[in-house]
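Reminder: ligand-aware prediction takes two inputs, not one.
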Amino acid sequence: MKNVRARADNSLLAALPALTRRRLTADRAPVDLVVSEILSRPGERIRHVYFPIDGFISLITPAKGRGQLEIGLVGSEGMLGIPLLLGVNISPLRAMVQGAGHAWRVDASTLQQELASNAGFRAALSRYLYVFLSQLMQTATCTRFHRIEARLARWLLMTRDRARSNSFHLTHEFLALMLGVRRVGVTRAASALQRRKLIRYHRGDISVVDVRGLERAACACYVIDKKIYARFLGSRGEQRGATNSASALLAATIANSIEC
Ligand SMILES: [Zn+2]
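Here is what comes back for the chain with zinc ion:
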């Protein structure tokens, strides 16, 4: 199957006027995202913001005595460092690179200056903040209510979208972290998806072989996330109608949380 790797850039930065973008990146080259690299730790000061281009970053919350749980993914659709949008410069989460690639790295002070002086930039990142919070809410209900197999299908689709590829590498340990289950639960769910010929999985190398089938196997959370993203970070026309439909989308999020 062909890869879906497309025009490589970060969507948030790509939407900015050239001058704003130049002020943020200072014409520096993207940095490498190396698998397992820790970009932030809970309680640490945020020094840089990352706008991934073609890698993806996992957001992990430690659960004392219970290991840890992945609660979000950041790829080319978003940014790492959103506490800065709220005027807070301390990271609440651990951020670890899960998919190798590149990212634009912006100094925290540069981002804060731009936020203070540029209302358009502030509005664009506020919309992203809303989408990010929606993803967190969706993940909370997903973890509580939805079946492991459907949740695995959702995370694999999310990873595929951020990796911009039908093939990627995720260790068994990381899949368990994604789903908040033991490794045996991951094995069962991955085997079930493989038997249905939706994915191929061998020693962490994953290939999505039937995207539509995997979408049908996923819980409703995947489509809800995508709709919210399209509504708030899609075309300008969609954004104009965004505020009015916010409560309707949140209602849909809650209504769909108990489907699976
Ligand atoms: Zn779900």
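The pocket of zinc ion is lined by residues 142, 146, 151, 154, 219, 221 (CB under 6 Å). The chain has a mean pLDDT of 85. We will return to this case in the review session.
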